[in-house]
Design brief:
Layout: E1 3-15, E2 19-32, E3 36-40, H1 47-54, E4 62-67, E5 70-71, H2 76-85, E6 86-89, H3 93-96, H4 103-113, H5 122-132, H6 137-140, H7 150-163, E7 168-172, H8 180-197, E8 200-205, H9 208-214, E9 217-222, E10 225-231, H10 232-237, H11 242-250, H12 254-264
Parallel strand pairs: 3-8, 3-9, 6-7, 7-8
Antiparallel strand pairs: 1-2, 1-4, 4-5, 9-10
Helix pairs in contact: 4-5, 4-7, 5-7, 7-8, 8-12, 9-12
């Protein structure tokens, strides 16, 4: 079992003209294989800072991140190996895919860089990845991002994240840029991949409705601090913190929302 520990992490930024800003304040959580934690909060709550620290785009001011008990390497082959184990799915699938390159290129590149399969097997692996995210290879493999729908682009982005055969995924608002009508399909795909591949998933969102639908546990972040955490139903149905209650009041009812969306598409998205 893979265990990712985010242990008492604080992150302070020095901002010219504004002094020091504490983006994270003593945040801790543990993510294991096959588990999804929903990280919920409004803009500026610290969600993106957590994602940047996990992907080693930022380093903590204090605290530590460990994978299977070992601190994350800061450089060299160790850092490269860590980044192969933890991949990120970004919010905007159009911005995260190079418009000048085909779908084939986007999937072949991580396969080559991480030497996932022999060169002779690249084509078969690209097609397998596309089928894994429920895309027809013949239809999309030689297209460029602007020739795909938003949902197709995000599926390609997920396939690219899976190419290196990671153990953990950080999904940063992966459906917020998509039409409401196709969000459930992408979330169900991520849920299937988590179950079938045994992935640990950190699902970052501002939306309590999708967090409850998709997560085993929910952690609510406000101004860099965890104000509430626990099993998804407990946090959503019986919120204890005033901030969580405010978020709950501002969110659509998840049962009605997803029943409506599924009904419009016959339950398949």
């Amino acid at each position: 079992m893979t265990v990712l520990e985010f242990d008492r992490v604080t992150k302070i930024y020095s901002v010219r003209g504004a002094g020091q800003i504490k983006a994270l304040d003593d945040v801790s959580f543990t993510l294991t294989s096959g588990q999804t934690i929903g990280l919920v909060g409004q803009s500026g709550s610290g969600k993106s800072t957590i994602a940047k620290i996990l992907t080693q785009l930022e380093t903590p001011t204090s605290g530590q991140v460990r994978l299977d008990g070992e601190p994350i390497p800061r450089r060299g082959a160790g850092l490269r190996a860590y980044r192969q184990k933890l991949r990120m799915v970004f919010q905007d699938p159009f911005a995260s895919l190079n418009p000048y390159h085909s779908v084939r290129y986007h999937l072949e590149r991580p396969l080559r860089l991480d030497a996932v399969v022999p060169k002779a097997a690249l084509e078969d692996e690209v097609r397998r990845l596309l089928e894994r995210v429920r895309l027809e290879p013949e239809t999309v493999i030689d297209r460029r991002p602007h020739e795909l729908s938003g949902g197709q682009r995000q599926r390609v982005a997920i396939a690219r994240a899976l190419a290196s055969r990671p153990l953990l995924l950080v999904a940063d608002e992966p459906v917020s840029m998509l039409d409401v009508s196709i969000r459930l399909g992408v979330l169900n795909l991520l849920a299937d991949l988590r179950r079938e591949e045994g992935l640990g998933v950190l699902y970052i969102t501002h939306d309590l409705a999708t967090a409850r639908h998709f997560s085993d546990e929910i952690m609510v972040l406000n101004q860099g601090r965890v104000v509430e955490s626990g099993p998804a139903d407990d946090v959503i149905l019986r919120p204890q913190d005033p901030y969580t209650r405010e978020l709950r009041a501002a969110s659509p009812d998840p049962e009605k929302h997803f029943a409506s969306v599924s009904g419009q598409h016959g339950g398949v998205l």
